[in-house]
Specification:
The chain has 526 residues and is of the alpha/beta class. It has 18 helices and 21 strands. 29% of the residues lie in helices and 18% in strands.
């Protein structure tokens, strides 16, 4: 996030797109509710009538996968209405002439034919955001889990740059992280393209820096993503270590994923429970849960926090860092003689420019947002104040493109997937929590009542949900939350493996799967 969570209470206009915040980030969403109570206007763009739409001043029910068309039209209106911040563009950006000429083509009327959103509503959204003194954008996986996920994010950045809604209180581009410490994991270098601190692996200076530090030379090329790793299983990759992820349930195209893991000679899983993925492993190593572990975590607002064990771990459970260190020692890899997480965190601070001014003791109270570039620095709650780290904000010329698969006579219905408040992710934890079944005992397919009638279904009955990759059996739930022609289900329940259906395409840059768009067929079992 470019701005801290407290800033959620400050904008004049809040634009939420592709985020079911009140279900997926319910605590953070309290700030949004406070802003609305204080007079902020909320724009929500989402294919479903999620709970957030009940709070909205303006709801844009766009078709799944059509975000770029909507955002291009909003940019068109902002320019047409003279709401472009010319001073900001001139002093802090590059690439504006080509971008401003490009968006003249994309009228709200054009976008309406793709998104299904009324042109007048697109205009209203653009004018509200463009004329705000403090306009903020919030998004999550509904933006990134598309073949055009990078295009979607760049389109949002274009809106912020052309209005100057960046680098100030109550503004910014704010992606809400989907899981605890996802931000900290990236900070630490668990990415195929970066060393710790987002230092590019393709930069020879970074290569030399880490060669000097660890005595091992790495290639000047990006590593492979998990998508490619699964494709290589059984061939170039013969063994795999999965730490804290239920890959079999959370990944797209389950059949392919299962075949990939089964083709390995050796699979090791580190986890706190025996998940569906762990059940496939040759070796399972029990890890400690958050309340049993000392360490650090960095949250969605870049706040670095200490974690303190509250209870002793059960049985043979050990911290992940200890397990990984022991494996490294047995592989005779030097440099893993850590005695505690303090040593590891201080080492991270010594190699990461965004953590340089921190250490184990300094983060004890969780008060610092990175970057903290030097000792004594007070942290950076708001990014891009006065200047961009890389010089100037870059406008990107983006064009709309259809999802990888679109509806057809054989698969005439759009499926979009996501999460539910009561079943976190793959239910590794919530599925074992007493009382959750009372709130959500099973997964159901959300279908508009008119579609339920027209498709010969009955509320509460079972149906077959099919895509080009397979078929699952699922119960029907009639609800107006889903628009006609679009159905929704979460991927949380292993007995209703929704990700058996998904996985038709991936963003070519990030290799993020298009989990939010999948053409399907719905058929009654009776």
């Amino acid at each position: 996030m470019s701005n801290p969570l407290i800033d959620m209470q400050k904008p004049d206009v809040i634009f939420c797109i592709g985020t079911n915040m009140t279900e997926c980030h319910p605590v953070a969403a309290i700030g949004l509710k406070k802003a609305i109570a204080n007079g902020s206007r909320l724009i929500v763009a989402d294919p479903r009538r999620i709970g957030l739409t009940d709070l909205a001043n303006l709801y844009l029910p766009l078709r799944v996968g059509s975000d770029v068309a909507l955002l291009l039209a909003m940019a068109h209106v902002i320019q047409r209405e003279g709401l472009v911040d010319l001073n900001f563009i001139e002093s802090r950006t590059t690439g504006s002439p080509a971008f401003l000429e490009h968006i003249q083509l994309f009228t709200p009327e054009w976008a309406s034919t793709i998104t299904g959103v009324e042109p007048t509503d697109i205009e209203t959204a653009a004018i509200w955001y463009g004329s705000a003194d403090q306009g903020a954008i919030y998004y999550t996986l509904g933006i990134t889990e598309h073949i055009c996920g990078v295009d979607n994010v760049q389109s949002l950045c274009n809106l912020a740059l052309m209005t100057g809604h960046i680098g100030r209180e109550g503004t910014g581009i704010n992606p809400m992280r989907g899981q605890n410490n996802i931000q900290g994991t990236g900070d630490s270098g668990a990415l195929p393209n970066n060393y710790p601190g987002f230092q590019a692996v393709t930069d020879p200076q970074n290569q030399a820096k880490f060669l000097g530090k660890y005595g091992r030379k790495t290639d000047l090329e990006k590593g492979i993503t998990k998508v490619t790793a699964l494709d290589f299983c059984g061939d170039q990759i013969r063994a795999m270590l999965i730490d804290g992820e239920n890959t079999l349930i959370s990944d797209p195209n389950r059949k392919h994923c299962q075949q990939a893991l089964e083709s390995l000679d050796h699979l090791v899983v580190i986890d706190i429970f025996l998940t569906e993925t762990a059940e496939m492993a040759n070796v399972v190593l029990p890890a400690t849960a958050f309340g049993e572990t000392d360490g650090t975590a960095t949250n969605t607002e870049r706040r670095v926090q200490r974690l303190r064990a509250a209870v002793s771990p059960p049985g043979q459970a050990k911290p992940d860092w200890w397990i990984i260190s022991q494996i490294a020692k047995r592989m005779e890899i030097p440099g893993f003689d850590y005695q505690n997480p303090k040593e590891i965190f201080n080492e991270l601070c010594s190699v990461s420019p965004i953590y340089t001014g921190l250490n184990w003791d300094r983060v004890a109270n969780g008060e610092f947002h990175w970057p903290v570039p030097e000792e004594g620095h007070t942290g950076t709650p708001i990014l891009h104040q006065g200047e961009f780290v890389n010089g100037r904000g870059i406008f990107t010329v983006v064009n709309y493109r259809d999802p990888n698969e679109t509806i057809s006579d054989e698969f005439p219905v759009w499926l979009t997937t996501g999460r539910r408040l009561t079943s976190y992710h793959t239910r590794t934890q919530t599925g074992r929590t007493q009382g959750i079944d009372y709130l959500l005992a099973e997964e159901a397919l959300e279908v508009h009542p008119d579609d339920v009638r027209d498709w010969g279904l009955m509320d509460g009955d079972w149906c077959h949900l099919s895509s080009p990759r397979g078929t699952v059996k699922i119960r029907v739930k009639a609800t107006s939350r889903s628009p006609r022609g679009t159905v929704f289900a979460s991927f949380s329940f292993s007995d209703v493996p929704i990700n058996l259906l998904t996985g038709s395409g991936y963003d070519p840059i990030t290799e993020t799967a298009e989990l939010k768009v999948c053409p399907v067929r719905v058929e009654s079992l009776f």
